Structures are given as C-alpha cells and as structure tokens.
C-alpha cells in the first residue's frame, strides 16, 4: 500500500498565492474607473463650469487688463506693473483705503452692537414679538436703491426732512452730504441701517440654539445677568460672531451703491471707497488698467484680512 506524499507548507502557500494572484493582477491592471466611481465627480461638473464662468474667467481677465494699457473700447499692449506703480503713487488710492477702513469698521461695530442688543430683546418672550421682528426686517427687505434715495432726500440740504426736525428742536441745520466729516458719518449710518437686520437675525438664531441647561447651571451657582451674558452667552456665539463680522467687513468694503447713490464719492472724494475708485478709473477716466489694478488690490486686501482673522481665531480656539 502506497502512502501519499506529504505536501510541504511552502508549496501550499505558493499554490494559494498562485490562485489569488490572477485576481489581484486583474484588479491592479484595470485601466479605467467604473461608472459608479465616476458618478460623484460627474455631479460636480455643472458647478465647476459655473464657477469657472462666473469667477475664474473674470479674475483672469482682470489680471490681464491690469498688466496692459488701453480702455474699454481700445485694448492696449502689455505694460507690466506700470498700472500698479501708478496706483501706489496716487493720493486718491490711499484716501480710498482710509475711507473703506473707516466705513467697514463703523459698519461692523454699529451693526453688531445694534444687532446683538435687539437679538437679546427679541429672545425674550413678550407680547408683539413677531410684529417687532417684521418691523426690524424692513430696512433689509426694502430694495437698496429705494432706501438710499429716500435717505438722500431726507439728508440732502438744510430744508430736508431731518434738518426740519432738528430746527423744531432749536438746533442748527447739519449739512450731512456737503461736509466731509458729516458725509462719512451719513454714509456709514445709512449702511448700518440697511445691514443690521442681517446681524439681528443671525445672532437671534444663535441665541435660540444655546442649551438652556447652561443658564440653569449658572443660576444654581448664583450668577448674575451680566455674568450669564459674559460667561455663557458670548462664548457660545463667539465663533458665529467672528464669521458675521468677517462677512460684514467684506460686504462693506465691496459696497458700491451706498456711497455712490448718496454722495458719488464726494464731497472732495471724502466718501470714495476702493470700489468707487475702481469705477471712476474704469468708466470715468476710461483707464481699464488702473481700474483692474484697484480691483485686484482690493481682492488681495480682503483675502489677507480673512486669512488673518481665521488664523487668529484658530490660535484662540
């Protein structure tokens, strides 16, 4: 009787690898991904095309215009960094930066202070709260051009509505749109009036999302109303507040209609923002290169500001 020859373990492992190897080899050699794997990327194609059409193409065009001369009707040749050199040598550019910063800081501080105070009040339970919410939303609902033209009519001269009201109080008229400082104040106040409802709604939503057990625990510890606000409310809405202030800063610097419709950048260019300066260079002076240069500098300034704010926020987190 013949005994079967034992198989060495190495041979078994070799045979097993030989049986599995073809499947792995076929899997490695597969040249194209399957339709199931490509489907998520196919869903992104329309959005990517829209982004390229709306953002990438205008940005690349602005870069090209900023490096060339000419106007809207007659393109010029390549001039390199000449437009940027001329821009940084112009006094109007620094005046526009100063006003843009004052305008943005005033709008952010004013909107946040008013929005937070009203949000704290709207977070309370009292009769007529719904009607108050609707009333506070009116400045945001009314179209911008309508509200700004109405404000211009109320602030235009000494016979305007606001000055008539001041005269009833025995005060001298204020030339809001003719004096440089008064014009800056008037433009900023109108922007705050138009923008605070967005801050109000966002902060009110944040306040309503805070866990009530935190206030109950603070009450058990004997915390006062101010301590509740300082140690419970503000830490809970801190991250949202940073995002809201950052968004409001971007919107303020990019705001064109408020200073243009109220003062058109005057008097003496005191309310001429960076966006207004780009408009004047491009459409008034017919210099496409300088206008594009201002737009790109504004974009870089805003990007740097956002990166700085997010970096500081990340460090404090």
Describe this structure as you would to a colleague:
- This protein is mostly helical and 317 residues long.
- It has one domain (82-316): MetI-like fold (Orthogonal Bundle), CATH 1.10.3720.10.
- It has 13 helices and 2 strands.
- It has a two-stranded antiparallel ribbon.
- A hairpin with a 4-residue loop joins strand 1 and strand 2.
- The relative contact order is 0.11.
- The model is unreliable at 9-21 (pLDDT under 50).
- This is Sugar ABC transporter permease.
Radius of gyration equals 31 Å
Question: What low-confidence regions span 5 or more consecutive residues with pLDDT below 50?
Answer: 9-21
**DSSP, total strands:** 2
CATH secondary-structure class? Mainly Alpha
- Overall spatial form: globular
């Amino acid at each position: 009787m013949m005994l079967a020859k034992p198989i060495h373990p190495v041979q078994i492992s070799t045979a097993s690898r030989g049986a599995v190897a073809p499947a792995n080899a076929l899997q490695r050699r597969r040249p194209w991904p399957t339709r199931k794997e490509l489907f998520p990327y196919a869903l992104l194609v329309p959005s990517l095309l829209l982004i390229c059409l709306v953002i990438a193409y205008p940005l690349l065009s602005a870069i090209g215009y900023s490096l060339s001369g000419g106007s809207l009707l007659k393109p010029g040749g390549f001039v390199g960094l000449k437009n940027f050199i001329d821009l940084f040598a112009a006094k109007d550019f620094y005046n526009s930066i100063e006003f843009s910063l004052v305008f943005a800081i005033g709008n952010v501080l004013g909107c946040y202070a008013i929005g937070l105070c009203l949000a704290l009040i709207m977070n309370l339970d009292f009769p007529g709260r719904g009607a108050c919410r609707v009333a506070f939303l009116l400045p945001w609902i009314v179209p911008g051009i309508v509200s700004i033209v109405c404000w211009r009519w109320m602030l235009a001269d000494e016979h305007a509505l606001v000055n008539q009201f001041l005269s009833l109080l025995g005060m001298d008229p204020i030339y809001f749109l003719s004096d440089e400082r008064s014009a800056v104040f008037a433009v900023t106040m109108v922007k705050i009036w138009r923008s605070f409802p967005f801050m109000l709604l966002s902060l009110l939503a944040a306040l309503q999302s805070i866990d009530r057990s935190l206030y109950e625990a603070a009450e058990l510890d004997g915390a006062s109303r101010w301590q509740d606000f300082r140690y419970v409310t503000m830490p809970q809405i801190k991250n949202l507040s940073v995002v809201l202030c950052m968004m409001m800063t971007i919107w303020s610097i990019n705001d064109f209609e408020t200073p243009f419709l109220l003062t058109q950048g005057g008097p003496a260019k005191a309310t001429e923002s960076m966006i207004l300066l780009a408009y004047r260079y491009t459409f008034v002076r017919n210099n496409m290169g300088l206008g594009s240069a201002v737009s790109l500098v504004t974009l870089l300034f805003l990007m740097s500001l956002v990166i700085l704010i997010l970096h500081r926020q990340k460090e404090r987190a």
